[in-house]
Amino acid sequence: MQSFLFATGIENSSPRVMRRDGRIARVDQMEATGHYQRYREDLALAKALGIDVLRYGAPYYRAHAGPGRYDWDFSDAAFGEIRRLGITPCVDLCHFGLPDWLENFQNPEFPAHFADYARAFAERFPWVRLYTPINEMYVAAHFSAQLGLWNECLKSDRAFVTATKHIAKANLLATLAIMEVQPAARFIQSESSEYFHPSNPDAVKVARALNERRFLSLDLCYGYDLCASTYEYLLDNGMSRDEFHFFLDHNIRPVCIMGNDYYATNEHIVFPDGRTQQYEMLGYYVITKQYYDRYRLPVMHTETNNRDDGQVEKDARSWLERQWGNLVRLKEDGVPIVGFTWYSLIDQVDWDSLLVENNGRVNHYGLFNLDREIKPVGELYRDLIAAWRGKISNGMLSIY
């Protein structure tokens, strides 16, 4: 494996969402982008970029057919091709959506069933070593249980805490299950890097609470001893002392790499009444440094993108240059960053409505369009990989 990992991913989100008319519908990004039919072509495009790692996983809702029952047909075909091409996968086991039979993240049986699935996957594909058990745990809980958009479609602190504790426990149990099968496995926890700026002095207290809460899923998974106010928030919203101590008593940190996702939408202005609006201010460097200072784990830049639709194509290229520049500066300042990711390989669909509306609207965030033609940002990323490969290590910069 390379000492520094250049990566991309194939978007495999599959939540159930609340449509504007009140109907619940499954959204599958692999289906929307034509990946199921064109997976061989897509994997060949990833290989041609020169990447070291591909973030990839078949949608969980299709593969986990029931308790102890699995449908490996697509996984066998796709991962067989990945192995044939010599691509190193980092496997997304759950990307925002659960099987219908598990319903949603409020289900207390989800963690145990998910651990069984993770173990079964590791047994089926013993050559896989990199995993993201549950993608963006904070986002999954926030969108599902506080914003009311996905899965359980609830809007309360109690629902958020319930979703968070179940997601974090599932992530932890899956990690332990995979380690039983593949002791050499390592876990790159792709998590959204958030920050809340107070709009005025009256919003400072609210912003502080949200800036603690953004860490909650990682705090639980990494056994971080919470501040008193956050602990009270958990107890007030349904977490027991025993449930909290479960996380303190399990240590998976030695096999973890902290993955940080950063988009222009990750920073927010917060108002005294709790309302927020997106506002980019600090950037990847400052926010990632906050996460690193909290956990002191190796870091991987696991997601970023910006639009490249032919009209504002410089946005994507300048964004890539900015994110890469932030990463280089962080490494020069001693943060152990082990990789960089542009997400995703191909354009996505309907993310402008957070998947809630079924408009078929293409979001131009990929390195390739949906006709599988490389875009200017794809060419820039391919050239960046070629230029920097071997010049950047897992320690300080090594330019020669």
TrEMBL record:
It comes from the Bacteria. Coiled coil: none annotated. InterPro entries: GH, Glyco_hydro_1, Glycosyl_Hydrolase_39. PANTHER family: ALPHA-L-IDURONIDASE, BETA-XYLOSIDASE-LIKE PROTEIN-RELATED. This is Beta-glucosidase/6-phospho-beta-glucosidase/beta-galactosidase. It comes from Noviherbaspirillum suwonense.
